[in-house]
Write the structure tokens for this entry.
Amino acid sequence: MERLRLAVSHRPALPLPTPHNHLRRRHLQLQPSPNSLSLSRPISPHLSPTPHRHLHPILASASATQAATPEPAPAPAAGAASAGAKLLPLILSVGVGLAVQFLAPRPAEVTPQAWQLLSIFLSTIAGLVLGPLPVGAWAFLGLTATVATRTLPFTAAFGAFTNEVIWLIVISFFFARGFVKTGLGDRVATYFVKWLGGSTLGLSYGLTISEACIAPAMPSTTARAGGVFLPIVKSLSLSAGSKPNDPSAKKLGAYLVQSQLQASGNSSALFLTAAAQNLLCMKLAEEAGVKIASPWISWFKVASLPAIISLLATPYLLYKIFPPEIKDTPEAPALAAKKLEKMGPVTKNEWVMVATMLLAVSLWIFGDAIGVSSVVAAMIGLSILLLLGVLNWDDCLNEKSAWDTLAWFAILVGMAGQLTNVGIVSWMSNCVAKVLQSFSLSWPAAFGVLQASYFFIHYLFASQTAHVGALYSAFLAMHLAAGVPAILSALALTYNSNLFGALTHYSSGQSALYYGAGYVDLPDVFKLGFAAAAINALIWGVVGTFWWKFLGLY
């Protein structure tokens, strides 16, 4: 009797990909852990080759599951990792900076130092898009150029390494590792599958709602995707006979992957602490003079109505646009119950994780009133996890993406901040404001044009945080120069910084992970990414207009 295996496990700490190395493999592998648990139930041998509209009972046999899982990509050649910079991207990236420095006329109101800093910054941004080197290495070259050419003194060039928000982002990676290591995120998601998973649409809603519940305490969309939700989606899909890189992918897996990806942007936009770029945006807004009182509560209040409506609409609309062949999943709740039974009672480390995250989120919400900043709240939470053994220092050291982000992010934020200090951002915003005024655009029209431009420029970026670091300050300054209300400008740009993460297969870390699972063809990724963007624009534009007017943002 033919059998398939569905592996369910308390997943170990997973190395989460940085947003810029995700195009090296077509398919990412999430290997089962040594403590995997198997649920097996026989299936009738009379399998029909035609598409089924019901989920088959859970099956068992390691060999069949392995056959359904894509083979790992071959390891790169020994010298590939140290081959140096890619020549053509290197020439183009450096050429951008040289062209600005020596060919473009410098405006009279811009100092030579400021113009030189702009040329180095644009060359750095070009390298982020073209990828002559890994992003951290290329950012370091840009930093070296600013110091070597005496464009910036050493202390100014490295000033952003003490930025509180950047360290808060680093600590958020460690929190995400705690969720994965303890299995808490997996347990929460499995409960929602048990409660809502009787149909494919219900299954999608269960996964979507569970991510929204986890999001405020797990501040990394990529970590939630790779450590919690993609393994569950893959297991459920394989149990239904929906295999990656196979015509059967559209039975169930393709829909669940796209639904989860498209909904994740709204989960991240709903809470200030749900994604790294949110925290950076608020810091950049503050540096631009836009101060938001009680940021966690204000953020949630402004985002709540459009984000929740989008969260509820996305699975249903994708169900109509990109329908799965399997409509009912009657076995999924039973599978989830079996999995929870195998997981056993909540462990001590899971309870510690719950208590620590409740403390951290409470301090993020109410910390301003008692003088505890967000980064101090995160430091307290991480200290508790280390003291009680939920995480150890090796876990932190092995979180390479955290340290990589610290390096390149601090460099990029530092450069962007210095561009503001030397007057480049104000000069650019005034130029754009004059162009908008020449078209006699009202501030609502200017708001729409700038927001759309900021959103669709993301087709050129392979990271949400890189996009924010490169363009957020400039676009916020343009909004303010065009007369758009300050808080509305700052928050709308930030919400967009979450929503454009599902535009393409390279738009974000989580997008690369879901695409790498092998369930959705590339043309469908682009079509569905654009369709979901249009849906989000309609919901956020219409609902947001009335909701934000009601809240007094304009």
